[in-house]
Structure formats: C-alpha cells, structure tokens
Amino acid sequence: MTLDFLSALILFALVSSGTPGPNNLMLMASGANYGFARSLPHMLGISVGFSGMIVLVGAGLLQVFDTYPITALLLKTVSVVYLSYLAWKIATAAPIKKESRHGTPMTFLQAAAFQWINPKAWAMALTALSVYAPSQTLVAFALVALVFGLVNLPAIAFWTLMGQQMARVLTNPLRLQIFNWSMAGLLMASLYPVLWPA
Considering the domain boundaries, does residue 51 fall inside one? Predict the structure, then answer.
C-alpha cells in the first residue's frame, strides 16, 4: 500500500468515524448521561468491534449474503428494531445523579455486538474493503481494520467528550429530557438510508 493510498484510507476512516451516526449519537448521549469514564467500555467496544467486523466481513461473510439473500433482509429488520429500542431507551433515560450507581451505559460486549446491526458500520466496512483493500487478502483486511482501530477511537471519544461537556448545561431535568429526545430523534433519522435506500 502506497503512502498516498494509506493517507486516503486514514482520511476516509477519520471522516466516516467522526460524522454523525448511531454510534456517535449514542456516545454523545452516554457522555451527557454517564460521563466520559463510565462510557469508556462503550467506546472501546465500538472501536474493537468494528475492526473485528472489517476482518470477518472481508474474510468471507459477504458470501453468506450472496448465497442467502434473506439474511440481508433479516439483518436490516433486526437493525431497525434494535435501533428503535435504543432510541426509546435514550429518550426515556432518567437523570443520573453523580452519587447514584443506578443506570448503566452500554458495555464493551454490547457495543462490539451492536456493530453487526449498525447500518452505518456496514456501509463503512463495505466501502473500506472494496476501495482500500483491492487485493482482497487477509493482510489487506487486517491493515484496513488496524487503521480504523487507530483512527476510530479518538474520533468517537470526541463525541463522548462533547456529550459530557453538554451535561453542564443539562442540569435542568427539562433540558436533559429535550436533549435525550433530540438524540433519540436523530438516531431514528439515521435509519433513513436503510428504510428508504436511494
């Protein structure tokens, strides 16, 4: 892989990881509701889970979709249902007091597993593999996954920090409720490409 090619991959990973999508919107809500430290497992789960997804998809999982087209429809249905459930949980999240131990952010394993039903993660993985791994070898897939793993974590950490900073403004229960409902609405809006593909 040439330096220009690697630079383009890094830029693609940065832009696609840093733009709004289900992961970033949920991290922003998590940062606002639970803080940065308690959201760390969620962030690590996204980064590690997505990198693993790239390798596994590149290694042949796409052939399953080609052989059994119903699996793609099943994945889409599960994605929509689960994202709707998460949007509802965000919208109805109760204010978390700093001294309270109640309320739990997404765990590492939940966040890693979520990548498999995240429509944006699938679009990112498919684009990255088709454009930046033309040799279609395991080494190429691993390199793409490594770049995403290194670039993704700082990009998504920004969203969590932004949410944590917003928590200073969201001390009023009404403002927090408006924020949570807004994040839930944006999360549902991120399903638009899945429900009405171009």
Answer: yes
